[in-house]
Amino acid sequence: MEVRLARKRGFCFGVEDAIELAQRTVQMNEPGKVVALGPVIHNAQVVENLEQAGLNQSGDLEALRAGTTVLIRSHGADPETYVRAAEKELGIVDATCVLVKRAQTVVKQLHEEGYRVIMIGDANHPEVKGVIGYAPDVIVVDREEDLDAVLPKRERLGIVAQTTHAPEHVAEMIGAIASRPFRELKIVNTLCLEVVRRQEAVAELCDEVDVMFVLGGLHSANTRELARISAEAGMPTYHLETWAQFEPRMIAGHRVAGVTAGASTPDYIIDEFVENLRAVEPAA
Q1: 99-187: which CATH topology?
Q2: Hey, what CATH topology would domain 13-97 get?
Q3: What amino acid positions are annotated as catalytic residues?
Q4: 3-class SS of residue 75
């Protein structure tokens, strides 16, 4: 099978930094003394490797005892988490992505400047849950049809977006917000350029292949976005975590396969998939 790879794919610097910090913290502490408040990144294989190394990634902050080290995962956390950790005399190691940190800072600054903050994003995503904690009453929107019910009128609005969102979707939402009555609109770009580059690369690759494989965690927002972009381009698209999920029927009738991967997908998963796929003879 002929296989072509997206020019930008796999780990971003924020994910690499979070994993390295998690590994180093576990190595420097006694077993069981480091707890992350949820998966460090959205990749099941990396999560499993970190747990095998001794990192508990299902910690309940309120259940932890003094002396335990809390690892803030790459998606960040709200200010209350840091306050409670300090009150409980827990150590804090912060693996928050620097771009998520920036989004947190921007939300705080917009509020201090008198803007009502609007965040374009998935309200259930851990990044969004953490970011909106940096200002009171942040409104989270992700669908144009919801705006009339939640958008305040005649206020000064400050807009940010979830870092992993597609620029096209954010632009559409901003346009929809701008069509409503408001006194002032301030937009701060909080999108991750590394994620945007991966989105651009998968769109380009769709012009060169006849089936697309998107590798990464099924719960990874940026990986799901890559799969959405490919599918909306009319490409037969399969979002898989590893080669073990591949089925020969997926390439039946196809000659050239594209492969990309989300920002939390390690190289070894990509390399194994590509090597195995190139060895497969497509069915007629």
Answers
A1: Cobalt-precorrin-4 Transmethylase; domain 1 (3.40.1010)
A2: Rossmann fold (3.40.50)
A3: 127
A4: coil
Domain with CATH 3.40.1010.20 in the chain: 2-10+194-278, 99-187
Span 113-152, pLDDT tens digits: 999 999 999 999 999 999 999 999 999 999 999 898 899 9
Query: What predicted TM-score, i.e. pTM, was given to this entire model?
Result: 0.89
Phi and psi, residue 240, nearest 5°: -125, 155
Q: Which CATH class is domain 2-10+194-278?
A: alpha beta
Identify the residue whose tokens are 């099941």.
Answer: 44
Instruction: Take residue 151 and report the two structure tokens written for it.
Output: 């958008």
Nearest to 26 by CA among 64, 71, 89, 73: 71
Provide the phi-psi class of 36: left if phi over 0, else alpha when psi is between -120 and 50, else beta.
beta
Q: Which helix (H) or strand (E) holds 203?
A: helix 193-205
What are the residues whose beta carbons fall under 8 Å from the beta carbon of 90, sequence distance 6 or more? 61, 64, 66, 67, 68, 69, 70
Tokens 């954010």 belong to 170
